């Protein structure tokens, strides 16, 4: 019952090709480059011939033969037709050696039970809304993507990458504040999300990164887990800390929140009685102790704002919605 989603409306044919490419993980740079070239030409031909560039339309023309037919049916001059035809024919070998996997992934998505979500033409014919992120941002709309990871684990992961790339393409279309919330963001392509947020700040892009534990950050990038976790923590200005079960997590959170100066008094005792001699020294202690972070009640959180240097404990009120 959702609206349709056109994730290939924004950007030129090269930007759209990048989004299509993220539907498959490539292990060989050569074959990735081969597929990239073919998809880029596909998007160029669809755009030049006045056809839709959405995912379903792309899935229908992923052969040299189909692309040549589109060009022959167009009203271009002979010179322009020949130039496009020559570019298509250069991909004959690419189609044979490097496109099978990506073509299959795109077709699988186009033929899946989620097909109606990408059928832009049918949605417009039936009067259903079509989601284009650039338009949604301009309208200050609230957009929710529900990726059912338990039902469609592989498909949800691919769609997550696709959506993140669409957000990246849309980021530069405005400078207005644009808040993106990523629940369990480490399950998606977390390094890509972090890069997007860091690069998108100048365009008003901000993000809320939700995760269960600091260990999830390290699991997000197996190639360099500790470095990635430090990158994330170094990019964040506001922390919302709910109850933490792992002592190490609580320790990390307390260190992130910081310390404060505290005066420690000591008194001299002799045979159980104070001698009157005493001393005082300044020590550093956690502003919020790890034990306190392990004892936060449900619905409560410690909110740390590095910009305002504020630390408050809040209790979330139940919503009427």
Assign an overall shape.
Answer: elongated
The number of strands is 9
Distance between the termini: 20 Å
Question: What average pLDDT do the residues reach?
Answer: 86
- Helix residue percentage: 40-55%
User: pLDDT below 50 for ≥5 consecutive residues: which ranges?
Assistant: none
SS element count, helices: 16
Record the strand order, biggest sheet. 5-8-9
Helix-strand sequence: EHHHHHHHHHEHHEHEHHEHEEHEE
How much of the sequence lies in strands comes to 15-25%
- Helix/strand class: alpha/beta
Radius of gyration of CA atoms, rounded to a whole number: 27 Å
Largest sheet: 3 strands, antiparallel
What are the SSEs and their pairings?
Blueprint: E1 4-5, H1 13-21, H2 29-48, H3 55-60, H4 64-73, H5 78-89, H6 92-97, H7 100-110, H8 115-118, H9 120-126, E2 130-131, H10 133-138, H11 153-171, E3 178-182, H12 190-200, E4 205-209, H13 214-220, H14 225-235, E5 238-241, H15 247-257, E6 259-270, E7 273-286, H16 290-293, E8 300-305, E9 310-315
Parallel strand pairs: 1-2, 3-4
Antiparallel strand pairs: 5-8, 6-7, 8-9
Short description:
With 321 residues, this protein is an alpha/beta fold. The protein has helices spanning 13-21, 29-48, 55-60, 64-73, 78-89, 92-97, 100-110, 115-118, 120-126, 133-138, 153-171, 190-200, 214-220, 225-235, 247-257, 290-293; strands at residues 4-5, 130-131, 178-182, 205-209, 238-241, 259-270, 273-286, 300-305, 310-315.
């Amino acid at each position: 019952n959702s609206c349709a989603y056109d994730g290939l409306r924004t950007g030129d044919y090269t930007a759209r090709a990048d989004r299509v490419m993220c539907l498959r993980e490539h292990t060989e740079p050569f074959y990735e480059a081969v597929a990239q070239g073919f998809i880029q030409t596909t998007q160029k031909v669809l755009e030049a011939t006045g056809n839709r560039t959405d995912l379903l339309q792309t899935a229908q023309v992923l052969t040299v033969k189909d692309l040549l037919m589109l060009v022959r049916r167009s009203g271009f001059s002979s010179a322009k037709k020949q130039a496009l035809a020559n570019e298509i024919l250069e991909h004959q070998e690419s189609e044979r050696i490097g496109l099978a996997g990506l073509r299959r992934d795109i077709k699988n998505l186009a033929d899946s039970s989620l097909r109606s979500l990408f059928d832009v033409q049918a949605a417009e014919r039936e009067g259903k809304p079509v989601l284009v992120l650039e338009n949604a941002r301009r309208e200050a709309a609230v957009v929710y993507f529900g990726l059912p990871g338990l039902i469609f684990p592989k498909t949800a992961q691919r769609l997550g990458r696709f959506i993140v790339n669409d957000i990246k393409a849309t980021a530069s279309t405005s400078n207005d504040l644009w808040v993106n919330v990523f629940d369990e963001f480490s399950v998606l392509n977390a390094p890509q999300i972090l890069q997007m947020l860091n690069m998108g700040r100048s365009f008003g892009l901000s993000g809320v990164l939700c995760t269960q534990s600091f260990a999830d950050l390290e699991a997000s990038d197996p190639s360099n887990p500790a470095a990635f976790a430090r990158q994330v923590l170094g990019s964040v200005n506001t922390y919302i800390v709910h109850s933490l079960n792992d002592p190490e997590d609580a320790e990390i959170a307390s260190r992130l929140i910081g310390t404060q100066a505290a005066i420690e008094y000591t008194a001299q005792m002799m045979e159980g009685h104070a001698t009157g001699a005493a001393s005082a020294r300044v020590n550093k202690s956690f502003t919020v102790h790890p034990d306190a972070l392990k004892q936060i009640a449900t619905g409560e959180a410690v909110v740390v704002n590095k910009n305002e240097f504020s630390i408050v404990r809040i209790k979330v009120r139940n919503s009427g919605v």
